[in-house]
Amino acid sequence: MSDIxxxxxxxxxxxxxxxEAEITEINDANAMALASVDQEGCPNVRMVLLKEIESNAFxxxxxxxxxxxxxxxxxxxxxxxxxxxxxxxxxxxRGKIEKTTSDQANQYFVSRSLNSRYGAIASxxxxxxDSREILLRRxxxxxxxxxxxxxxxxxxxxxxxxxxxxxxxxxxEDRLHDRFRYIFKSEEKKWSKQRLYP
Length: 198
Ligand SMILES: Cc1cc2nc3c(=O)[nH]c(=O)nc-3n(C[C@H](O)[C@H](O)[C@H](O)COP(=O)(O)O)c2cc1C
Description:
The chain has 198 residues and is of the alpha+beta class. Helices cover 29% and strands 36% of the residues. The chain has five helices and nine strands, in the order H-E-E-E-E-H-E-E-H-H-H-E-E-E. Flavin mononucleotide binds next to strand 2, strand 4 and helix 2.
């Protein structure tokens, strides 16, 4: 059996695990919990979809005026976790936050279905909404105004989580799980690896 922890770069290992999970999970293998903190230091968490893994970053897309966006921009940090029930594995990430470039956000925006693009434009994410009808009306208005080629709104785009710490976890017999914590050593541009008690 190949070693699932094989390799020195935890981002590459996480990418490999996600590929496996895309086969074994029922749906949304890329669903991750994204944690932020508010101004009082109180944690906040919600699911988002992990859309890309780059050599140094985990990327998701959202509304830049949403609660999550405000909180992670303010603190400059975020944490995320993915758990794959089918694989019994977990990836935890803590990192710094950067916005994607507009080019990258545009590229992803046009890859979305037309209706998702209308929705992204119409939704004042995280703001109070009096009824579902109001939202549907707004989506129809956007569809009429924007036609077949809607422009990405400036307040919608991607965030990169640039990890300084990653933990890879795999279920073990009798709860004797395997846990490895990786810390990025920026001077050497290398990851250090430490096994942890489960
Ligand atoms: C499986 C799943 C995937 C989601 N993916 C996203 C996403 O990629 N981007 C996003 O903005 N919201 C996504 N959401 C909605 C968020 O969980 C959340 O409700 C929304 O972004 C508002 O969060 P906020 O008010 O904390 O900013 C997803 C929800 C679920 C359950």
